[in-house]
User: Which sequence fits this backbone?
């Protein structure tokens, strides 16, 4: 391991970003990192607003990159210019928040750590119902480090990194994610992300994760026919694994895919396929609340109300032990299972337990109209 005197890097921490038309977000982002970084490297992919001028006002080194439908290529253009021992990667709609930690001293004192994950905290509308996943955004500028993947790119090391073998969550440092207005988000999907992913799909380059992502984007943008086609394609790739009971090696978005298709099969009353999806899903991801909830719902649809109750109770009991690998609506930990639990008790004609469950659902969400309606029904018994 190099000693301090042998350190080949003149700087400690480099910020690397790619931007396009981010004049509204850049000041907040760059202001948040300015106290901690030694250099800011901005790769502009074709801005027509004041993004470049704003970056330069903050002292950033701006380079221009011709967009080629490849996020990794744009990221790597920035990495090639970084001279810091550590690299911090942010998006323009994010803000670095350092709490009760001397970030620079922490990095200087790090020895065997190669990379740090940072907790993402969503700040945009509706974010309180989403569980945030940690992101690997702070890593050593070691030989061979490059971003890979045209979409959902990630940093990887092309060669061994002797002396650096640890990945840790950096407690005390967070990324606040503000996101975009819904109309701008949909526009970015339509103009940039969907064409990129669709071109990869036509070349047969989409695995389960990106195919699921494309299906979700088509749904968000209102193209339900293409969305369903992509979900079906993803299911076809997944089916051999389901039949063999072997979890795919590509697990990104797999929980969401299992949940999404299981929900569709339940709505279509295809209970056999739903059972296959949920049986495997709960073996692979036993603490993913949407799957636990749907397993209970399946038993309800089949008329096994007592069998469903433990699944809904499990959702309520998971609490902070839930699997954060992929975001989901926190209502699957609160109002959804509480309401469904009440429905089970109603079917079993155990009115006191049903009343308590519906009251719990309303404690989580006072405006939960179905729970209000069921309580009114119970009042008659």
Assistant:
């Amino acid at each position: 391991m190099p000693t301090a005197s042998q350190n080949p890097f003149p700087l400690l921490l480099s910020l690397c970003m790619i931007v396009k038309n981010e004049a509204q977000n850049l000041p907040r982002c760059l202001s948040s990192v300015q106290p901690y970084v030694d250099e800011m490297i901005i790769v502009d992919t074709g801005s027509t607003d004041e993004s470049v001028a704003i970056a330069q006002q903050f002292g950033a080194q701006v380079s221009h990159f011709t967009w080629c439908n490849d996020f990794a290529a744009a990221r790597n253009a920035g990495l090639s210019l970084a001279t810091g021992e550590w690299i911090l990667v942010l998006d323009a709609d994010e803000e670095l928040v350092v709490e009760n930690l001397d970030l620079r001293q922490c990095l200087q004192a790090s020895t065997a750590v190669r990379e740090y994950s940072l907790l993402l905290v969503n700040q945009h509308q509706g974010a309180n119902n989403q569980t945030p996943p940690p992101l690997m955004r702070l890593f050593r500028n070691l030989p061979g480090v490059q971003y890979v993947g045209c979409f959902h790119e990630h940093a990887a090391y092309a060669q061994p990194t002797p002396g650096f073998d640890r990945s840790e969550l950096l407690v005390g440092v967070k990324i606040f994610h503000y996101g975009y207005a819904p109309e701008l988000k949909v526009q970015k999907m339509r103009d940039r992300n969907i064409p990129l992913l669709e071109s990869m799909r036509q070349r047969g380059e989409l695995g389960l994760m990106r195919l699921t992502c494309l299906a979700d984007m088509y749904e968000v943008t209102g193209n339900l026919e293409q969305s369903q086609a992509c979900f079906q394609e993803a299911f076809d790739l997944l089916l051999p694994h389901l039949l063999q009971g072997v979890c795919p090696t590509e697990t990104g978005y797999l929980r969401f895919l299992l949940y999404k298709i299981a929900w569709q099969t339940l709505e279509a009353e295809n209970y056999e396929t739903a059972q296959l999806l949920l049986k495997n899903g709960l073996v692979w991801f036993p603490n993913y609340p949407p799957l636990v909830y749907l397993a209970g719902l399946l038993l309800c649809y089949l008329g096994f109300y007592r069998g469903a109750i433990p699944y809904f109770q499990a959702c309520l009991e998971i609490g902070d032990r839930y699997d954060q690998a992929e975001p989901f609506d926190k209502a699957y930990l609160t109002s959804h299972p509480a309401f469904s639990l009440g429905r089970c008790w109603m079917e079993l004609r155990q009115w006191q337990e049903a009343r308590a469950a519906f009251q719990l659902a309303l404690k989580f969400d006072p405006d939960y109209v179905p729970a209000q309606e069921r309580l009114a029904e119970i009042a008659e018994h």
Remarks:
- Residues 182-202 form the longest helix (21 residues).
- Residues 1-5, 126-131 have pLDDT under 50 and may be disordered.
